[in-house]
Amino acid sequence: MDFKIEYTWDGFPVRHEPVCVRLSPCEQGVKMEVSAPLFNDPPSPLGEPGKPFSELWNYEVVEAFFLNDTTKQYLEVELCPS
After folding, report:
1. Torsion (CA) 67, 73, 51, 56 in degrees, nearest 10
2. Which domain of life is it from (predicted)?
3. How far apart are the C-alpha atoms of 21 and 1, rounded to whole Å?
4. By Cβ atoms counted within 10 A, which residue in 1, 26, 28, 30 is the most buried?
5. DSSP H or E run through 10
6. What are the residues whose beta carbons fall under 8 Å from the beta carbon of 49, sequence distance 6 or more?
């Protein structure tokens, strides 16, 4: 399943190449691949790659939300370049 982010959260077209997100099945569950331009503004946080990091949304990230429509629980995934 492929997605392109071509608009900002408030409906304006992005002024760069779109962010591409691909979801595909794998042995462990779901694989998420992201292809996006890197602006490095601000630079990546100093946390350890692959580990939780508080307030990651303050950095350059791609976010995905997965909703369980039965329980209304959701999983938020934030990815930041390392």
Report:
1. 70
2. Eukaryota
3. 8
4. 30
5. none
6. 82
Q: Please name the residues in contact with 74: beta carbons below 8 A apart, sequence gap of 6 or more.
A: 65, 66, 67, 68
Start-end of H helices in 1-82? none
Q: Locate tokens 């099945």: which residue?
A: 25
HEC string for 13-36: ECCCCCEEEEEEEECCEEEEEEEC
Which pLDDT does position 82 carry in this prediction?
Answer: 67
Q: Which residues contact 58 (CB under 8 A, 6 or more apart)?
A: 42
Number of H helices, E strands in the chain: 0, 5
One-letter amino acid at 55 equals E
Q: What are phi and psi of 57, to 5 degrees?
A: -60, -15
Structure tokens at 53: 């990091």
